[in-house]
Fold these 2 entries.
Entry 1:
Amino acid sequence: DSGVTQTPKHLITATGQRVTLRCSPRSGDLSVYWYQQSLDQGLQFLIQYYNGEERAKGNILERFSAQQFPDLHSELNLSSLELGDSALYFCASSARQGSNTEAFFGQGTRLTVV
Amino acid sequence: GQNIDQPTEMTATEGAIVQINCTYQTSGFNGLFWYQQHAGEAPTFLSYNVLDGLEEKGRFSSFLSRSKGYSYLLLKELQMKDSASYLCAVGRGGGADGLTFGKGTHLIIQP
């Protein structure tokens, strides 16, 4: 158990809908990262927050947004869902900012868009 | 741009040694990571190299050559539980956080 908690574990929704994925980082970790993993693309970095502020952006679509709250949990919002958004979404946390820091991954949310 | 290459699949025998190679071409570099991921589970951290050379951690070792854009993960005394995907990832550096991952190498261990 990495100490990173993601909910829900599974989500099935229809095209055009909006969903929210939730992540609670390890106790004391200030950085939260979101990744998308699909079969053909592998793990893709989406976005990072550090202590409530957006720190870095990767390949995140404009239909997707995220935030980190004062209690350090984070939410990833996916809207106008398309079939191609079906993937495993991972949250990771680390104690510090900086890409030289070991990150601990949650168990992921498997999103299926039908 | 970001490009990380590793073999798609490898097969090895229980008790043997296997080397998984990774080559990278990235616009920034802040260290190279190896993660292990069992099917449907979260990636777990194995190793981190930022300087050239070999880092040893139990049955696993990782090597880095920054001038060649090359790393490898060496697994010794293979066990059946080592069957998993092994992900090579580069720290983006240059003030940009997050990791750029390769597509992973699926390692199959045979008895």
Entry 2:
Amino acid sequence: AQTIHQWPVAEIKAVGSPLSLGCTIKGKSSPNLYWYWQATGGTLQQLFYSITVGQVESVVQLNLSASRPKDDQFILSTEKLLLSHSGFYLCAWSPWTNERLFFGHGTKLSVL
Amino acid sequence: QQKVQQSPESLTVSEGAMASLNCTFSDGTSDNFRWYRQHSGKGLEMLVSIFSDGEKEEGRFTAHLNRASLHVSLHIREPQPSDSAVYLCAGDYGGSGNKLIFGTGTLLSVKP
């Protein structure tokens, strides 16, 4: 069975500090991978997606970047956090050409 | 940028009574339309995906799509308290879930 693991579960960071959020999918080779973000009380927005190692497409610009260093790993990062980065970050995967999307449990980020 | 309007913002129904949720999209170019739900503190669970006008049933969940009116609805038959969650509609503008635009969500509460 496939599993998706996100880390950390929650993070409290200072404005201007760096950030790295991670996501690992086990049990599925070559998944499509996604990052989503939801501000408190806001709409869920897709940030990035990747269909293969080393390739990432940006959907929404939020001064964040993403990388896929391994087939089963997706990283979301920034050098300098903004207050507006606070919210809930969700990683997701889907099988290639399959419409189902499976989400991780998410990371709650508070930027102070 | 495509937008999705969801209504109502919140809905309370009694156990066993039909629950109906609605979404209106800013344009009909979406490849398909999906309904997800999110239990508190959890990731998203896809309920039903619909491509063609008409209806599609997945267990107790039935989606209705009318592309001409840019409207998609979700009907939950015999809801249970365990169905209490936030329900999100999404338009898939990239195909295969690569670019999902989500609605703002409907908080459904099912009373025993």
